[in-house]
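Section 3.1: Structural characterization of target chains.
Under the original work plan, the team committed to producing a structural model for every single-chain target entering the pipeline before any wet-lab resources were allocated. The record below documents one such target. The sequence was received from the expression subgroup and is listed exactly as submitted; it comprises 462 residues.
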Amino acid sequence: MQPADIPSLRVTVMGLGLHGGGLASALFFARRGARVTVTDNREDPEVFRHILPQLTAAGVRIVLGRHDQDDFIHSDLIIKNPAVPSSSPFLEAARAHGHPIETDLSVFLQLCSNPLIGVTGSKGKSTTASAIHHCLHAADPGAKLGGNITVSPLTFLDCVDPESPIVLELSSWQLADVRGRGLLAPRVSVVTVILPDHQDKYPGMDAYIADKKILFSSQSATQYALFNQQDPWQRGFSTETRARPLYFSSAPLPPELSGAYLQDRGAVIREAGREISLSLDPLSVPGQHNRLNLLAAGLACHCYGLSPDDIAPRLRDFPGIEHRLELVAEIDGIRYYNDSAATIPQATAAALAALDPPILLIAGGTDKNLDFQALLESIDRAEAVILLRGSATKKMQVLFDESSIAYEGPFPTLEEALKRAAGRAVQGASVLFSPGCASFELFLNEFDRGRKFKQLVRDLGV
């Protein structure tokens, strides 16, 4: 793709999405003179109330509530939302007529030559990518952060300095869309941790992991690939990349491996036979899992060229990110945490382990064909378990009943669940909203869910 070609194109953007990619793609092409159509099969304009005026002002044609095959046949280029399966009959029709299918990420990668750091994983990727950006931004204020973190990289393509680093958080869907094209070869890649996820969309873990591997499959020998040494799913990953493998771990690394590991209240970076101390205390974000995320971020920044003396203070003052063990408020001595991004049971178990008791847990929601046994790892840290209705909640109930774990609910609304938790909490307690599953039965996505929880908490303090 060449910028000079864009004004002559007829572009169909399939799926506005709720993370900004559809909007960014439509505006990117429309502002460059292309004739753009946006089509989304959701017909409720309220969902897109903040988006539609921007599209209209840019001259974009908008089709809601349906997809029309003509929009895919009589188009020069299709931009698909990563959530749209490649098997869509509308995309098949476009392919049959020889029309290329791209995403906002693939367009960005074709037009951008900046140094990249790519981060993927089942959990921890947003925190790790944000912490990397936090460190890099101190050294280079032009550093950018985008991808699955709800910021399309197309939004900053025109304003980024060509020498500044770009950090991309990448989902399995985004990676799948660039498979085999050689577009993605980050200077540093990071895989946080692999856990069972999205098993309602994948035939099994092998297919899910295969998409994650795309992050490092096209790297060269001059680049770095960072792996979680304690993650059994990542064994053998280093044999599938030409990049130099480094490892991060919460325990000392085997002597033959280079990388970084947590030690006492700090960390050690080991490279070329020497060990360098990295002071991580005190961190602003809670939890052992976040210590490991920030260690991975520090190692990535070290590979990029930052010194440990530059990295350590930035990791220590990293404030965390929205929806990940986010302290919303302290009301009458009770702390309220928004951990809505905990969409798998292992994330909820980690959140419970990160906080000091007493903890009142609000969990439950939509199932992704996951096993909830991992909740049992830390559920005994919860003084009370309050459930929100949903298909996943039914599986939780069966598990808790079999394990003689008491719970309340399921409550039909988040407001009722929060009021019950707040009513039971005593001074010094934490109310933790960490669902352990998806959100689609009651909310648009986990971010919508988290924002609504935060507003409900604020209403408590009024």
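The longest helix spans residues 288-304.
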